[in-house]
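Fold Annotation — chain and its backbone
Encoding — discrete vocabulary of local shapes
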Amino acid sequence: MDTFSNTQNPESAPQNSLERFLKAQESSYPQALEEIRNGRKQTHWIWYIFPQLRGLGHSYNANFYGIADLEEARRYLNHPILGARLREITRALLLLPEGLSAESILGGIDALKVCSCMTLFNKVAPGVIFRQVLERYFQNREDQLTLKALNIPKEGFLLGAVAGDIIGSVYERYSVKRTDFPLFSGLSRYTDDTVMTVAVADWLLGTEALTPTLQHYVRHYPRAGYGGMFLQWGMSSNPVPYHSFGNGSAMRVSPVGWAFDTLQETLDYAQASAAVTHNHPQGIKGAQAVAACIFLARKGESKANIRTYIEQTFYYDLHRTCAEIRPTYHFDVTCQGSVPESIIAFLESTDFESAVRLAVSLGGDADTMGAIAGSIAEAFYGGVPESIRQECTRRMPYDLLAVLHRFHQKFMS
């Protein structure tokens, strides 16, 4: 029932201002939090405590307190009061005893609204608490009406590097030396490998020159886990190459492998994608080798031909095996110390998943090596398995997914 308490005056706050939520929550938020902590919603506050997208409900309250778009949702989550309250009351849901259902706590209709709210804010800024509510109370299902309203496509992503990054993220500093590790956990997340891959894709779409594009993404996602030198470069008012031979050039290059019709163009653009930061010969070589593997794989070349080309062109030793490498291998962020090993993981693989598992199992820079092996495997095996795609896309913000979708439409379809 759409009713307001005596202290609420929605007309005093414009519909396009977050002030409407602050006014509504002023007297009702403490009561709402207490009800959730007690495990039973009893009063009427759902629209402005767990807001959903405008247009999903038909009442006055649903419209007035509906979130207009992703930008307003992002401002809501970043608001020092509203964002903090949403996280607090979401955590309160997660602290309730096991066995309670969303319907028993909220009622059937309001449970659907909370599912919609969690789906929305997990797309704005994927976080453990929003995803955990979906996992615990909604059988890991997102609200399909919210996804439809956001116009998130179900197919058509450049996702190989992203999937390898997310799978490897848990094991970057806690190395695993076997292949039977869990692919995903509550801590699995996208990192700088994903953000910079999207940035390169955006650059190739012609949005802006490479340097300002990379810097834009660093500043928009400053906590993605960048290396110290790259983060300084990303924040600098006068960014210049810093002679790096780190594997950052290789982790972000995969869009280049898909964007061109000739191998020479691919090599040229791979060099350009690296040189704004990683202008050391090894940094450029790492980017070119990965882009060449992707180009050759999508053109139907065999693994034997790919191995031969990379060895003869870049002088990487690709005749080792993962079993030989694994016992003594350690964390190494250089191109020369991680790119060949990542390519070997792809060469030994039997499908996309095994390529990423092999790369991570070496016990090195797991997210980046997973991203490199995954980017090549995607091209060779014809995509990313649906189950992995779903796990990855629900951990990513909508704006990153949208760029990858546009890239697919332009270069891969």
Q: What stands out?
A: The two ends are 47 Å apart (CA to CA). Residues 1-12 have pLDDT under 50 and may be disordered. Residues 216 and 234 are 8 Å apart (CA to CA).
